[in-house]
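A quick aside before the break. I want you to see a complete sequence-to-structure record at least once, exactly as it would be stored in a machine-readable document. Don't worry about memorizing anything.
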Amino acid sequence: MTDYGQPISFGLSLDPSVDKLGETRHLAQAAADGGLSYLAIQDHPYQPGYLDTWTMISHLAAETSRITFLTDVADLQLRPPTMLAKAAASLGVLTGGRIALGVGGGASADAIAAMGGPRRSGPDTVAYTAEALQIMRQALTGGVVRFDGAQHTVEGYAGGPVPPTPVPLWLGGQKPRMLAVAGQHSDGWISPLNIYVPPEEVPSRQKIIDDAARAAGREPTEIRRIYNVIGAIGASGGGTGLVGGAQLWVDTLTRWAVDLGFDMFIFWPTTSPRSQLRAFTELIVPAVRAQVNEERGQR
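That is the input. The structure line, written in tokens, reads:
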């Protein structure tokens, strides 16, 4: 059993495709009205059909209230940490704290290079990411930001503005060195989709994070654990990811919370997003919360 005791929360992944903007606006408002906590937007700026993630968040944040926006995850190779922290802090102020920063080392070295970014090796990308998290941590808390590392040099500037609530720094990744960085420097681990990091592979990854956290003098329970879950509720005849009736979803997400240690689930519906969102908010979310709380109460 690996339950870190964090409160359970839920979110929806929004498609950044420009030709789906009308539907995306509808889903964003419906998710907020349905009581979800997060709207997550992937960051692949080299895709010509995708809107820029940060611009899209700024737009949707002005059209919603209460719900928090998550970059899932921002590409640090194309978004320098000082400016990304500045943007997050600014939106944190403008939205009353409705921003969470998910970041990563970048999904495609070729695509990053094609947009003018550096082509870093795997070890250099890991080092770059670890340093970037430390820089952003300084910047988001205000004061003078200085850093002299192998990948970054920041000679000193005044960080700010300081958001009304801290902006969490969550790191996406799945390989051992990046998972160790999550344990050392991040507020949470964002797992790739359940089809890329299947449930049976999660415990070994959680252990890497936990060991790295303890080695850094941190408690593993401080670190959030976010799972991107693709699938369909009520569908039959196969499909991608988690596919099945509402009870299967409730039982599965409950197990993934209390056995695997996840405390947040971001839903990526593969079909009929409006009806899938309705099923998720009405049938899945309250039942999973109730079951998780019941199982925790029995311990």
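Two observations worth writing down. The chain has nine helices and twelve strands. The first helix runs from residue 21 to 33. We'll return to this after the break.
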